Amino acid sequence: MDDSIYYKRTVVKELVPSQALGTERPVRVFLPPGYQELMSYPVIYCQDGEQFFNFGRIVTHMNRLIFDEDVHPAIIVGVDVDTATRTSEYAPEGSRFDAYCRFFAEELLPYIESKYSVRTEPTERILAGDSLGGTVSLHLALDYRSLFSNVLSLSGAFLQSTRDRLAREEDLSWLHLYMLIGLDEQEVRTERGTFDFVEANRRTKELLAARNCRLTYEEKPGKHLWGFWQNELPAAMKLFL
């Protein structure tokens, strides 16, 4: 098959108005090959939208899955973030965290659903994020469980505040979670300090398993980088689609 079909894409750029954030948020929307408004599609919502599209190559992966593996086409929504405010929006103790979660659940979803043929059941929405993007995705699912039940986490920053949040839950059998962690992530430098992400993910896995979460957990040699995550993304997407 001619490789060029993997790289053809329809990506619509949107500016989503937000009262919660007090500004517009740039969003990119990938429409799969043969997109028709008469059909409906599962949707993958990515934190760090620009990175998922450029470094994660999620659109090329989606095209390959559609053409080569007969995976059901999905719409992909990449929500961009300003690196200057990323931690304040994605970290549970961040000053903009609550506002960002409100924007995501109460403004972004209705906006996308009013313009595109996306499915609206929680089981047809997938939240995807790397590092702190995995963190905010998990918290969104916990706080808006009527909206989200699938989380794809690439080296999630599941630190103490997230583990405390999970410990308050009794039953997570409704939650479907994919967790990837690289075995070379024992000293990850972040704005908030240096952390052992392997240990953090293992402890999070125990909390989730004890609460009957539908969990796919993978540890592989890899660093806290897109070079590692990019290659693991297709299998993770396939799991949900």
Automatic annotation (TrEMBL):
Domain of life: Bacteria
Protein name, entry field: Enterochelin esterase
